[in-house]
Structures are given as C-alpha cells and as structure tokens.
Amino acid sequence: MHRLHAEVAVAQLSKSGEELCGDKVEVSQVGDTTTIVVSDGLGSGVKANILATLTTKIASSLLKHGIPLEEVVNTIAQTLPVCRERKIAYSTLHIVKLHIDGKTTVVEYDSPASFLLRNGHVIPFPTHEKVVAGKTVREGYLALQENDFIIIVSDGVIHAGIGGLLKLGWSWQGISNQLALNYSSRCNASEVAEGILNCCNGYYLGRPGDDSTVVAVKLRRQRQLTLFTGPPVDKFMDERVVNRFLQVPGKKVVSGGTTANIVGRITGKSVKVDLSNLDPEVPPTAKIEGIDLVTEGVLTLTAVIERLDDRRRLSDMSFQDGATLMARLMLEADKIDILAGMAVNPAHQNPILPSQINIKNHVLDKLCTKLESIGKQVTLEKF
After folding, report:
1. What is the mean pLDDT of residues 130-145?
2. 242 closest CA partner among 214, 215, 261, 223
C-alpha cells in the first residue's frame, strides 16, 4: 500500500468592504492523520471572524488531544449559540480527517455538502444524518483512492452571483459541473481551489456579497526526501549509514564535501564539482551518479533556511545555486528525513567545546523548525 499524502490548498475572498474574512480554516497533522476544520461565522467582518476562529480553535484543539470526533461535535454543538431570528448556529462546522491509508471521515454541521471528485466525476461525499446534542449533523466514512479530491466550500461560494448574473446563485450543482468539466487528476490542489474561487469572484463581478472559502484536498502519493549531511562520529558507521541513505525511496540530497566523498567512496561513484552555476554567497554544487543534489555543508544549509522564505528567488529558475536548489526540493517534499553525522569539523567548531553548541547542531535544529512551520513532516537522526 502506498502512503497517501493530503495536499491541502485554501483560497478565500472577504465580503466586499470587509478587511477580515468571516470564514476560518485550520489544518493540522498529528501522526499519520491530517485534519481540516472549516467554520463560517454568521454575518461578516470582525464578529464573524471571531466566531469562526473560536469554533475552529476549539475543534482543532480537541482533535489534537485525541478527543473522539463525536465528542468534539457534541462540545461544539453545545457551545455554539443559535441565532434567535434565523434559527441557525452562529457559526458552521466542517471537519475532514484523512489517514495515510485513504480512510476519511467527514462531519458537516450547517455547512454545504463536501464534493468528492474522482476520475472526472463529482458526487456529494456520502454521509448520513445523526442527532448530536439536539443538533442534526451529517457524518460519513469512505476509503479514498490515489488522486481523489475532496472540495469544501462555504455558503458564499454556493450563493455567488445570486440576484445578479445568476438569479438563484451558483448552487452546489453548478460548482459540481465546473469541477467535473475543468479539473482532472493531473491538477494539484491549488489549481482547483484558486480556479473555483476565481469563478466565484467572477459571478460576484469582483464585489463578493459574502465571505467565500474554497478548500481543496488531493490524495496523492507521499513525496519523500532524504538529506545526508556530515560524517558519523564513528567511521565504522559510514557504510551502514550510506546504505540506509541509498535504500530510502524518494529524492536524495548530500550536503557536505566530506559526506560526498564518503558516499562516493562507498558507492564507487566519482564526485565531480559543478562550476556551471557559481554564486557569490553559496559554494558550488557537485554531482554523484544516482544522487539528486550534492552541495557544500553548513554554509549551504544556513542559506537554505533563508531561501525557504524567498518566493521570488525560488520561482526564478535562473537561480541555480545549491541552497536554492535544495530549498526547491524541500518545498516539493512532504516528508523529509535528515541523517546527520555529528563528527566535528575543525573548520566550523572548536573540538574542545561541548557538542550542545556545535554549529552544525544549531543549523540543523533551526532548519527542522523552519520546515515543520511550513507543514513538512521532519525526522532528524544523528550518528
């Protein structure tokens, strides 16, 4: 069985004249499960944003602590007041939980039905009604397949164009037709989310009459990257670590001149320095047959942390320095495993100083923190 990754994209519009969007989306990952919580606050602006944020924060926090889904819904249903005039909750709740094996749970409370897009066909995600804390919710379970999409929209998308270009609004069926007509398994989550939201904005003639949110989730195979940097403290570990590095599936990156030479020696492959893309800030890269990228060590890894925030540089393909190339590979990956040899390099560290203040240690910890902050699964193993 292939491990499936939930690629999540969010696109939003605020109601015309409002600075804050009254819809809120929380995405979290605990272990092998990705959870998406969406809430649409009643009305618009600051009040709606506060209501939606409260709902998503409560639900996400409970789910992270392992509270059963039914108890989460029960807590939210009892917590949220109901508008006396409109007889609806002050904010909606939409939960999607996806496991790496594809098993998916959807809970919908006062929100539009989820779309399931599979092989060019769209159906509502299959759910059944149940009463929780006196409130009617829809709940469903399904084993999703590779390249399936789940799309969540708020009421603002459903009602786009109402009273204007579309007398009765875009409607669930109208969005379904758009999805089936224009999106296939070749698309990514961002293309779907942005495309639907652009259509929504068009039906509003660029002046949204309500907060509008689209969340697109694509199930695809997990993209893995393994970074090997630094020689092990025990030289007798060299071959074991290299063999493990080579056996892991996915993209492979070697960082550090000594590390590259170890890989070359054990594999019998030559290490060739590449001087075709010199950069004044980052040392040149090298090439080893079968390795996706070979770079210098600490200086390059330090630059990678900065490059991960530099969207302009990352999107400009004229930049081909080692740090930019590594940052691009890391952004493409879902899971990043770092195999770090902790032998002290005298050029970077006084060997009599304690390992806790080892420069390489500090850089790797900072890199891991940065990668985790942008949603990557990261493991760091030291030798």
Report:
1. 89
2. 261
